[in-house]
Amino acid sequence: MSRAAPFTIGTETIAAGERALVHLPIASLYSHDAPLTLPVYVIHGRRPGPVMFVSAAIHGDEINGVDIVRRLLRQRTMRNLAGTLLAIPVVNGFGMLQQSRYLPDRRDLNRSFPGSATGSLAARLANIFVTEIVARCQYGVDLHTGSSHRINLPQVRANLDDEETLRLANAFGVPVIIHSTTRDGSLREIAMEQGIKMLLFEAGEALRFSELAVRVGLRGILQLMRHVAMLPASRSRRKLVDPFIARSSSWVRAPRSGVLDMRVHLGAKVGVGDVLARVYDPFNLFEDEGADVVGEKEGIIVGMTQNPLVHEGDAIVHVARFKAAENVAEEVGAAYQEVLEAPRLI
Protein backbone atom coordinates (compact mmCIF):
# COMPACT_ATOMS: atom_id res chain seq x y z
CA MET A 1 0.00 0.00 0.00
CA SER A 2 1.49 3.34 -1.04
CA ARG A 3 1.91 6.01 1.59
CA ALA A 4 0.79 9.59 0.97
CA ALA A 5 3.45 12.25 0.53
CA PRO A 6 3.60 15.03 3.14
CA PHE A 7 1.06 17.82 2.66
CA THR A 8 2.13 21.46 2.81
CA ILE A 9 -0.10 24.45 3.50
CA GLY A 10 1.14 27.88 4.50
CA THR A 11 4.44 27.31 6.32
CA GLU A 12 3.33 23.94 7.77
CA THR A 13 4.06 20.45 6.46
CA ILE A 14 1.86 17.62 7.70
CA ALA A 15 3.05 14.01 7.47
CA ALA A 16 0.83 11.19 6.23
CA GLY A 17 -1.52 10.00 8.95
CA GLU A 18 -1.22 13.22 10.95
CA ARG A 19 -3.54 16.12 11.67
CA ALA A 20 -2.83 19.76 12.42
CA LEU A 21 -4.40 23.15 13.01
CA VAL A 22 -2.78 25.69 10.70
CA HIS A 23 -3.33 29.40 11.25
CA LEU A 24 -3.02 31.41 8.04
CA PRO A 25 -2.38 35.08 8.91
CA ILE A 26 -4.91 37.59 7.59
CA ALA A 27 -4.58 40.90 9.42
CA SER A 28 -4.56 42.42 12.88
CA LEU A 29 -7.38 44.09 14.74
CA TYR A 30 -6.78 47.77 15.41
CA SER A 31 -7.10 47.16 19.16
CA HIS A 32 -3.75 46.16 20.71
CA ASP A 33 -2.55 44.70 17.41
CA ALA A 34 -4.47 41.46 18.05
CA PRO A 35 -3.89 39.10 15.07
CA LEU A 36 -6.77 37.41 13.28
CA THR A 37 -6.06 34.27 11.28
CA LEU A 38 -7.81 31.82 9.00
CA PRO A 39 -7.93 28.55 10.98
CA VAL A 40 -7.54 25.46 8.78
CA TYR A 41 -7.93 22.01 10.32
CA VAL A 42 -5.93 19.53 8.26
CA ILE A 43 -6.47 15.78 8.39
CA HIS A 44 -3.91 14.16 6.10
CA GLY A 45 -4.61 10.49 5.45
CA ARG A 46 -2.02 7.77 5.38
CA ARG A 47 -3.03 6.79 1.85
CA PRO A 48 -3.11 9.03 -1.25
CA GLY A 49 -6.44 10.38 -2.34
CA PRO A 50 -8.36 13.54 -3.24
CA VAL A 51 -8.15 16.83 -1.37
CA MET A 52 -11.46 18.34 -0.26
CA PHE A 53 -12.25 21.55 1.59
CA VAL A 54 -15.30 22.10 3.79
CA SER A 55 -15.84 25.75 4.67
CA ALA A 56 -18.29 27.57 6.93
CA ALA A 57 -19.10 31.11 8.04
CA ILE A 58 -17.97 32.88 4.87
CA HIS A 59 -20.82 35.07 6.08
CA GLY A 60 -19.94 35.66 9.72
CA ASP A 61 -23.47 35.24 11.07
CA GLU A 62 -24.16 31.92 9.30
CA ILE A 63 -23.01 29.54 12.02
CA ASN A 64 -24.74 26.19 11.42
CA GLY A 65 -21.72 25.15 9.39
CA VAL A 66 -19.42 25.77 12.35
CA ASP A 67 -21.08 22.93 14.25
CA ILE A 68 -21.14 20.72 11.16
CA VAL A 69 -17.36 21.10 10.87
CA ARG A 70 -16.90 20.44 14.61
CA ARG A 71 -18.83 17.17 14.41
CA LEU A 72 -17.13 16.20 11.15
CA LEU A 73 -13.66 16.46 12.69
CA ARG A 74 -14.71 14.20 15.58
CA GLN A 75 -15.89 11.30 13.41
CA ARG A 76 -13.95 8.11 14.12
CA THR A 77 -14.05 7.18 10.46
CA MET A 78 -11.57 10.00 9.78
CA ARG A 79 -8.87 7.60 10.99
CA ASN A 80 -9.42 5.75 7.71
CA LEU A 81 -9.16 8.82 5.52
CA ALA A 82 -7.52 8.55 2.10
CA GLY A 83 -6.41 11.94 0.82
CA THR A 84 -6.69 15.19 2.71
CA LEU A 85 -9.51 17.11 4.35
CA LEU A 86 -9.17 20.87 4.84
CA ALA A 87 -11.87 22.02 7.24
CA ILE A 88 -12.37 25.74 7.82
CA PRO A 89 -15.09 26.32 10.45
CA VAL A 90 -14.84 30.12 10.40
CA VAL A 91 -13.74 31.82 7.20
CA ASN A 92 -14.99 35.30 8.12
CA GLY A 93 -13.76 35.69 11.68
CA PHE A 94 -14.20 39.46 11.48
CA GLY A 95 -17.89 39.06 10.69
CA MET A 96 -18.41 36.45 13.40
CA LEU A 97 -16.95 38.79 16.02
CA GLN A 98 -19.57 41.38 15.03
CA GLN A 99 -22.32 38.78 14.44
CA SER A 100 -22.50 40.22 10.95
CA ARG A 101 -22.73 38.83 7.43
CA TYR A 102 -20.10 41.28 6.22
CA LEU A 103 -16.49 42.23 6.79
CA PRO A 104 -15.52 45.49 8.54
CA ASP A 105 -15.04 47.14 5.14
CA ARG A 106 -18.76 46.45 4.46
CA ARG A 107 -17.96 43.97 1.71
CA ASP A 108 -19.58 40.60 1.18
CA LEU A 109 -16.72 38.08 1.14
CA ASN A 110 -18.70 35.77 -1.13
CA ARG A 111 -18.72 38.48 -3.81
CA SER A 112 -14.99 39.22 -3.48
CA PHE A 113 -13.31 36.18 -5.06
CA PRO A 114 -10.67 35.62 -6.38
CA GLY A 115 -9.45 38.63 -4.44
CA SER A 116 -6.07 40.33 -4.44
CA ALA A 117 -3.01 40.21 -2.21
CA THR A 118 -2.86 44.04 -2.22
CA GLY A 119 -6.57 44.92 -2.22
CA SER A 120 -9.18 45.55 0.46
CA LEU A 121 -9.54 43.37 3.56
CA ALA A 122 -12.19 41.29 1.76
CA ALA A 123 -9.96 40.96 -1.31
CA ARG A 124 -6.98 39.83 0.77
CA LEU A 125 -8.97 37.24 2.70
CA ALA A 126 -10.46 35.93 -0.55
CA ASN A 127 -6.99 35.77 -2.10
CA ILE A 128 -5.59 33.76 0.84
CA PHE A 129 -8.50 31.33 0.62
CA VAL A 130 -8.02 30.82 -3.12
CA THR A 131 -4.23 30.43 -3.05
CA GLU A 132 -3.96 28.33 0.12
CA ILE A 133 -7.20 26.30 0.05
CA VAL A 134 -8.92 26.22 -3.34
CA ALA A 135 -5.74 25.74 -5.36
CA ARG A 136 -4.92 22.54 -3.42
CA CYS A 137 -8.32 20.86 -3.78
CA GLN A 138 -10.33 18.80 -6.23
CA TYR A 139 -13.63 19.08 -4.32
CA GLY A 140 -15.30 21.58 -2.04
CA VAL A 141 -18.40 22.05 0.10
CA ASP A 142 -19.40 25.51 1.30
CA LEU A 143 -21.89 25.67 4.19
CA HIS A 144 -24.48 28.45 4.42
CA THR A 145 -27.76 29.42 6.08
CA GLY A 146 -30.51 31.83 5.15
CA SER A 147 -29.70 35.51 5.58
CA SER A 148 -31.54 38.66 6.66
CA HIS A 149 -34.08 36.92 8.93
CA ARG A 150 -34.67 34.14 6.42
CA ILE A 151 -34.73 30.39 7.00
CA ASN A 152 -33.88 27.73 4.41
CA LEU A 153 -35.00 24.14 4.10
CA PRO A 154 -31.87 21.91 3.97
CA GLN A 155 -30.86 21.85 0.32
CA VAL A 156 -27.90 21.53 -2.02
CA ARG A 157 -27.33 24.14 -4.70
CA ALA A 158 -25.04 23.36 -7.59
CA ASN A 159 -24.46 23.72 -11.30
CA LEU A 160 -26.38 20.65 -12.41
CA ASP A 161 -25.42 21.17 -16.05
CA ASP A 162 -22.03 19.73 -15.13
CA GLU A 163 -22.40 15.93 -15.05
CA GLU A 164 -19.81 15.24 -12.34
CA THR A 165 -21.21 17.97 -10.10
CA LEU A 166 -24.67 16.47 -10.56
CA ARG A 167 -23.35 13.08 -9.43
CA LEU A 168 -21.76 14.67 -6.37
CA ALA A 169 -25.01 16.46 -5.51
CA ASN A 170 -26.89 13.17 -5.72
CA ALA A 171 -24.28 11.46 -3.55
CA PHE A 172 -24.69 14.12 -0.84
CA GLY A 173 -28.07 12.53 -0.17
CA VAL A 174 -30.13 15.60 0.69
CA PRO A 175 -33.75 15.33 -0.53
CA VAL A 176 -33.79 18.74 -2.25
CA ILE A 177 -31.32 19.81 -4.93
CA ILE A 178 -31.68 23.14 -6.72
CA HIS A 179 -29.91 24.03 -9.94
CA SER A 180 -28.05 27.26 -9.37
CA THR A 181 -25.73 29.16 -11.65
CA THR A 182 -22.74 30.90 -10.10
CA ARG A 183 -22.68 34.55 -9.09
CA ASP A 184 -19.94 37.01 -9.94
CA GLY A 185 -17.23 37.06 -7.28
CA SER A 186 -18.51 33.98 -5.44
CA LEU A 187 -16.36 31.17 -4.10
CA ARG A 188 -18.30 28.72 -6.26
CA GLU A 189 -17.52 30.73 -9.39
CA ILE A 190 -13.77 30.82 -8.82
CA ALA A 191 -13.75 27.14 -7.84
CA MET A 192 -15.53 26.22 -11.07
CA GLU A 193 -13.09 28.30 -13.11
CA GLN A 194 -10.24 26.33 -11.55
CA GLY A 195 -11.87 22.99 -12.33
CA ILE A 196 -12.91 22.19 -8.75
CA LYS A 197 -16.24 20.44 -8.26
CA MET A 198 -18.14 22.22 -5.53
CA LEU A 199 -21.48 22.04 -3.74
CA LEU A 200 -23.21 24.69 -1.67
CA PHE A 201 -25.26 23.45 1.29
CA GLU A 202 -28.00 25.79 2.57
CA ALA A 203 -29.95 25.10 5.77
CA GLY A 204 -31.44 27.02 8.68
CA GLU A 205 -31.07 30.68 9.53
CA ALA A 206 -28.36 33.10 10.61
CA LEU A 207 -27.27 33.21 14.28
CA ARG A 208 -29.26 30.06 15.10
CA PHE A 209 -28.27 26.43 15.42
CA SER A 210 -30.64 23.91 13.83
CA GLU A 211 -30.17 20.27 14.79
CA LEU A 212 -31.85 19.18 11.56
CA ALA A 213 -29.57 21.36 9.45
CA VAL A 214 -26.45 20.15 11.22
CA ARG A 215 -27.38 16.48 10.98
CA VAL A 216 -28.32 16.68 7.30
CA GLY A 217 -25.14 18.59 6.47
CA LEU A 218 -22.88 16.21 8.40
CA ARG A 219 -24.44 13.12 6.83
CA GLY A 220 -24.17 14.66 3.41
CA ILE A 221 -20.47 15.46 3.71
CA LEU A 222 -19.66 11.96 4.96
CA GLN A 223 -21.63 10.42 2.09
CA LEU A 224 -19.86 12.69 -0.38
CA MET A 225 -16.45 11.68 1.01
CA ARG A 226 -17.39 8.01 0.62
CA HIS A 227 -18.50 8.68 -2.95
CA VAL A 228 -15.08 10.09 -3.92
CA ALA A 229 -13.28 7.25 -2.07
CA MET A 230 -11.88 9.41 0.72
CA LEU A 231 -13.70 7.26 3.31
CA PRO A 232 -14.61 3.55 3.30
CA ALA A 233 -18.16 2.56 2.46
CA SER A 234 -20.67 2.75 5.27
CA ARG A 235 -21.81 -0.44 6.98
CA SER A 236 -25.24 1.06 7.49
CA ARG A 237 -28.08 -0.47 5.52
CA ARG A 238 -29.86 2.86 5.41
CA LYS A 239 -30.82 3.63 1.84
CA LEU A 240 -29.74 6.97 0.43
CA VAL A 241 -32.63 9.20 -0.49
CA ASP A 242 -33.47 9.73 -4.12
CA PRO A 243 -33.25 13.52 -4.32
CA PHE A 244 -35.77 15.76 -6.00
CA ILE A 245 -34.27 18.25 -8.41
CA ALA A 246 -35.61 21.74 -9.08
CA ARG A 247 -34.34 23.48 -12.17
CA SER A 248 -35.75 26.85 -11.11
CA SER A 249 -37.03 28.76 -8.10
CA SER A 250 -38.37 32.23 -7.33
CA TRP A 251 -39.41 34.47 -4.45
CA VAL A 252 -42.98 35.63 -3.82
CA ARG A 253 -42.88 39.24 -2.63
CA ALA A 254 -45.02 41.39 -0.36
CA PRO A 255 -47.76 43.27 -2.26
CA ARG A 256 -47.74 46.05 0.37
CA SER A 257 -46.02 47.11 3.58
CA GLY A 258 -47.24 46.01 6.99
CA VAL A 259 -47.22 43.09 9.43
CA LEU A 260 -47.02 39.59 7.99
CA ASP A 261 -49.41 36.82 9.03
CA MET A 262 -47.81 33.69 7.55
CA ARG A 263 -50.19 30.88 6.53
CA VAL A 264 -47.70 28.27 5.26
CA HIS A 265 -44.60 26.51 6.56
CA LEU A 266 -41.18 25.49 5.32
CA GLY A 267 -41.35 22.41 3.10
CA ALA A 268 -45.05 22.85 2.28
CA LYS A 269 -46.50 22.33 -1.19
CA VAL A 270 -48.09 25.47 -2.64
CA GLY A 271 -49.98 26.13 -5.85
CA VAL A 272 -51.02 29.00 -8.07
CA GLY A 273 -53.53 31.19 -6.24
CA ASP A 274 -52.92 29.68 -2.79
CA VAL A 275 -52.90 32.21 0.04
CA LEU A 276 -49.41 32.06 1.51
CA ALA A 277 -49.72 34.94 3.95
CA ARG A 278 -51.63 38.13 4.65
CA VAL A 279 -50.16 41.58 5.23
CA TYR A 280 -52.11 44.01 7.40
CA ASP A 281 -51.72 47.57 8.67
CA PRO A 282 -51.18 47.54 12.47
CA PHE A 283 -52.25 51.20 12.68
CA ASN A 284 -55.62 50.68 11.02
CA LEU A 285 -56.98 47.44 12.50
CA PHE A 286 -60.67 48.48 12.54
CA GLU A 287 -60.86 49.04 8.80
CA ASP A 288 -57.96 47.16 7.23
CA GLU A 289 -58.68 43.52 6.37
CA GLY A 290 -55.19 42.96 4.99
CA ALA A 291 -53.84 41.99 1.58
CA ASP A 292 -53.26 38.38 0.58
CA VAL A 293 -49.85 37.14 -0.56
CA VAL A 294 -50.78 34.70 -3.30
CA GLY A 295 -48.80 31.83 -4.80
CA GLU A 296 -47.64 32.43 -8.35
CA LYS A 297 -46.19 28.99 -9.18
CA GLU A 298 -46.67 25.42 -8.03
CA GLY A 299 -43.82 24.07 -5.96
CA ILE A 300 -42.29 23.52 -2.53
CA ILE A 301 -41.33 26.22 -0.03
CA VAL A 302 -37.56 25.99 0.38
CA GLY A 303 -37.04 29.35 2.10
CA MET A 304 -39.06 32.02 3.86
CA THR A 305 -38.74 35.18 5.88
CA GLN A 306 -38.76 35.01 9.67
CA ASN A 307 -39.39 38.74 10.05
CA PRO A 308 -43.10 39.65 10.23
CA LEU A 309 -42.37 43.33 9.51
CA VAL A 310 -42.26 43.76 5.74
CA HIS A 311 -42.10 46.50 3.16
CA GLU A 312 -43.71 46.33 -0.24
CA GLY A 313 -41.52 44.18 -2.48
CA ASP A 314 -39.78 42.31 0.34
CA ALA A 315 -39.09 38.62 -0.38
CA ILE A 316 -41.46 36.46 1.69
CA VAL A 317 -41.57 32.89 0.38
CA HIS A 318 -39.02 31.09 -1.80
CA VAL A 319 -40.68 28.45 -3.99
CA ALA A 320 -38.74 25.77 -5.88
CA ARG A 321 -40.55 24.14 -8.76
CA PHE A 322 -40.71 20.35 -8.95
CA LYS A 323 -42.74 17.89 -10.93
CA ALA A 324 -45.37 16.20 -8.73
CA ALA A 325 -44.87 18.80 -6.00
CA GLU A 326 -47.35 17.20 -3.60
CA ASN A 327 -45.42 13.92 -3.54
CA VAL A 328 -42.18 15.84 -3.10
CA ALA A 329 -43.50 17.64 -0.02
CA GLU A 330 -44.57 14.38 1.62
CA GLU A 331 -41.34 12.52 0.93
CA VAL A 332 -39.08 15.44 1.87
CA GLY A 333 -40.88 15.81 5.19
CA ALA A 334 -40.53 12.09 5.89
CA ALA A 335 -36.84 12.09 4.97
CA TYR A 336 -36.02 14.94 7.35
CA GLN A 337 -38.06 13.36 10.13
CA GLU A 338 -35.99 10.19 9.71
CA VAL A 339 -32.82 12.23 10.15
CA LEU A 340 -34.08 13.71 13.42
CA GLU A 341 -35.16 10.32 14.75
CA ALA A 342 -31.89 8.56 13.87
CA PRO A 343 -29.12 8.31 16.50
CA ARG A 344 -26.93 11.38 16.63
CA LEU A 345 -23.57 10.73 15.01
CA ILE A 346 -21.65 12.81 17.57
Highlighted features:
globular, 19 strands, alpha+beta, about 25% helix, 13-stranded mixed beta sheet, about 350 residues, about 35% strand
Describe this structure in words.
The chain has helices at 64-73, 93-97, 121-132, 163-172, 187-193, 211-227, 325-341, and strands spanning 7-9, 12-14, 19-28, 35-44, 47-56, 82-88, 139-146, 150-158, 176-179, 197-205, 244-246, 249-253, 258-262, 269-270, 275-280, 291-294, 299-305, 309-310, 315-320. By secondary structure, it is of the alpha+beta class. Strands 3, 4, 5, 6, 7, 8, 9, 10, 11, 12, 14, 17 and 19 form a 13-stranded mixed sheet that branches. A four-stranded antiparallel sheet has the order 16-15-13-18, with no helix packed on it. It has a two-stranded antiparallel sheet with strand order 1-2. Helix 1 (64-73) crosses helix 6 (211-227) and helix 4 (163-172) crosses helix 6 (211-227). It is globular and about 75 Å long. The protein starts with 6 loop residues before the first strand and ends in a 5-residue tail after the last helix.
Q: What's the structural blueprint in terms of helices and strands?
A:
Blueprint: E1 7-9, E2 12-14, E3 19-28, E4 35-44, E5 47-56, H1 64-73, E6 82-88, H2 93-97, H3 121-132, E7 139-146, E8 150-158, H4 163-172, E9 176-179, H5 187-193, E10 197-205, H6 211-227, E11 244-246, E12 249-253, E13 258-262, E14 269-270, E15 275-280, E16 291-294, E17 299-305, E18 309-310, E19 315-320, H7 325-341
Parallel strand pairs: 5-6, 5-7, 7-10, 8-9, 9-11
Antiparallel strand pairs: 1-2, 3-4, 4-6, 8-10, 8-17, 12-19, 13-15, 13-18, 14-17, 15-16, 17-19
Helix pairs in contact: 1-6, 4-6
